[in-house]
Amino acid sequence: MKILIKNGRVIDPANKVDEALDILVEDSKIAQVAKDIKAEAETVIDASAMIVMPGFVDMHVHLREPGREDKETVATGTRAALAGGVTSVLAMPNTQPCPDSTESVELIKNIVANCATCNVFVCGAITKGRKGEEIIDIAKLKKEGVIAISDDGVSVDSDELMLDAFKRAAKEKVVVICHSEDRKLSAGGVVNLGFTSTRMGLRGVSKESEFARVKRDIELAQKTKAVVHIAHVSCKESVGIIAAAKKEGLKVTCETAPHYFALDESAVLGYDTNFKMNPPLRGKDDVKAVKEGLADGTIDAIASDHAPHTENEKEIEFERSEFGVIGLETELSAAITELIESGILKWKDLAEKFALNPARILRIDRGTLGIGAIADIVIFSPKKEWVVQKEKILSKSKNSPFLGKKLKGVVEYTICFGKIVYPFSK
Amino acid sequence: MAAKRLSADVINIATETSSVKKGETLIDTGRNIQALKADIIVMRHNYSGAAVMLARSVDISVVNAGDGWHEHPTQALLDIFTLKEKLGRIEGLNVTIVGDIAHSRVARSNIWGLTKLGARVTVCAPKMLIPPSIEEMGAVVIHDIEEALINADAVNVLRMQFERDSGEAFPQQLEYFKNFGITSERLKKAKKNIIVMHPGPINRGIEMSSEVADGANSVILEQVTNGIAVRMAVLFLVAQARDGNENTN
């Protein structure tokens, strides 16, 4: 089985490639990347005026299965991923059961084997049941294929326990992903603390609840030589703390999500729960800092933090509604619209944030179009525009903050493991 | 009451006795009321933003009668009406709001309304009850009650909800009265004709002394009376706007 991709602008930062080239995919691998490849292929894709990048690695995705199949399933979530150019997702552990034991990881792997249409990597929990009380057996879970651990959605409050987790993770060379939030400081808040919370009459989430914990997590990790990755960075101070840590040579990486660079807190003033997420949308200064952090390399990766919720959980009073928004299908276009159009990132940077860097952070053999690499590829039209419509969303849940927005960049083809998996075959 | 004076047919729905208790969502309740062919919903709700959410979900009119800590527009309108009646104008007045600003929808609506009409608004409370960046709404913050009263043409005293149980820091009742309570002694240092307002119900001896509540400066009962007129006006205008819409359709 051969696929020949002709005349696309191939952007592969791992190999410092950015030029119009052809790519030949043979079976599951990249066989050739060159000008004017003359080869017989079953499928030829004319990628003129299109950009060809390594398939995206989204390291923060909530697939909800097992446990909350009413929100999303592995089948619907991975379809949504493919439509967004995402060929690998890291499935976060806030499922029921949660991947904190061999049995539950097995269960999840079984579902993935039967239902997933893109690569699904499993992120294990840090503590049993994500309760912050007892650390899981990291070595055992690593043998089961778990590549990272996180108590996703909550932070391990005990310094002692977290230090222990970092020690064990360092020994096993497993990445620790931190949802850095001090819940004593965020104390029931639902929007950014400040004018927004005051004007809306809602409890506020201080930025300190985030950056104080970012600081702690980095400090603890440093004592153990563990690899620490900070999830969904939303505020200026966190960006500053991470930049300083990197400057010191500490092993820390981080991600942000499209809503933290595309939207600020003013979006939430109308009480639309599609703008309610944790951490909350922050101020204009913070958005600027996140963009600068992306530009100067402080922020390594863009991840969707895809968090599907049913309408029943979203279309209720603001404070009672769930935190989180979906993002798999819009992340590329949101990034093009907000970061490329304004010149904050170059195309090469985008490929790094979406593919190469997350693959490196997770130490998976993805994120490149080198010869012999696994053929996970996204091909998109950078200038085409589309409007995000609820009816067209593939995710089982429709809680997107970009509904009705016009975005730039349309995914034309997604290739996963050498097969064209998007557009979906009828 | 306002609706009755206008001869509207009124149905009261209290959540304790309605389907809300059985798990019905606000949007479903709204749609049911619409299906009953009501023209206007007047809603008071514990959650901030509930009124706007309901208004987005039904075609009939929604009057916000107070939502969480967010807004209480008719209270602000009746407060402003009372001020105008007593002092003849709003522009240039100094109005001080004393009490739990952080958790007060009355304070927020008064700030919006008064500043829009050109009054200067000062808010006064213990630090823990002043929400962050309230200045951006146009209010000045003064923590000392006597300083906050010195130039005031009117003081609007908020109800202190000591029964609230949110686990957040809250002052002691007697301590509050001592430091922020409106007393005759404090009023003596203020403008002679300062107007004392309160949205009710009053905690006598906590927010203000009985002497002040029943004294010459108090317009508290007039506020209640004006409340009827203002709310009648609101319903009338909303109903008219509805009719207007129907005519143009």
Features:
A: 426 residues, TIM Barrel, 8-stranded mixed sheet, B: alpha/beta, Rossmann fold, 10 helices, globular
What's the quick description here?
The complex is a heterodimer of chains A (426) and B (249). Helix content of chain A is 30%, strand content 23%. Chain A is of the alpha/beta class.
Structure, described:
The complex is a heterodimer of chains A (426) and B (249). Chain A is globular and about 65 Å long. The longest helix of chain A has 16 residues, at 347-362. With 426 residues, chain A is an alpha/beta fold. In chain A, strands 1, 2, 3, 4, 5, 16, 17 and 18 form an eight-stranded mixed beta sheet that branches. An eight-stranded parallel beta sheet of chain A has the order 6-7-8-9-10-13-14-15. In chain A, helix 4 crosses helix 7, helix 7 (208-222) runs parallel beside helix 8 (236-247) and helix 8 runs parallel beside helix 10. Chain A has helices at 74-83, 102-115, 138-143, 159-172, 183-186, 195-200, 208-222, 236-247, 258-262, 284-296, 311-314, 331-340, 347-362; strands at residues 2-12, 17-26, 29-34, 43-46, 51-54, 56-61, 86-91, 119-124, 148-149, 175-178, 191-192, 204-205, 228-230, 252-256, 301-302, 377-387, 406-416, 419-422. Chain A has one domain: Alpha-Beta Barrel (TIM Barrel). With 249 residues, chain B is of the alpha/beta class. The mean pLDDT of chain B is 92. Chain B contains ten helices and seven strands. In chain B, the strands form two sheets. Chain B has a five-stranded parallel beta sheet. Chain B is globular, with a radius of gyration of 19 Å. Chain A binds chain B through residues 193-195, 197-202, 204, 270-271, 312, 315-320, and chain B through 25-27, 45, 47-50, 52-53, 57, 67-71, 102, 105, 108, 131-134, 136-137.
